[in-house]
Amino acid sequence: MPDTSPFRERVTRLLRQVDPAIMVLLAAVLADLAVLLPAATDGVGMPLVDLIPLPGILLLAACAVTGRSRPVFAGWSGACVLGANSVLINFTDAPTFSTLLPETSFAECVAGLLLVYYCARSAPAAIAVVTISALVTAEVATAVLRDAGVHILQLAGMGLALLVVAVVPGARARQGIGDGALGTLLRQQWLLVGVLALALFLDASIVLSGPDVDLVMIVPAIAAVVLALRGVNHPFSHAFGISGVIAATTMLALLTRADRYVSLGGVPVAVTASGMVVTALLVRLESPRRAVTAIATLSAAVAIGTVVQIVTFIQPFTHYDRRFQLLQGLAVTAVLLLGISVAIGLFLRARDSERKTTVEAAVAEAQTAERMALARELHDVVAHHVTGIVVQAQAVRIVAEQNPHVVADSLGQIETAGTEALAAMRRLVRSMRGETGDAAAAAGEQPGPGEQATTDLDADLRKLATSAVHGVPVQLDVDVPQGLPQEVARSALRIVQEALTNVSKHATGASAAWATVRGETDAGGPDESGRALLHIRVADDGEPGEPGPLAAVGGYGLVGMRERVELLGGTLTADRHGGGWVVEAWLPLQGDEESQ
Question: Is residue 270 within 8 Å of residue 261, measured between CB atoms?
Answer without folding.
Answer: no
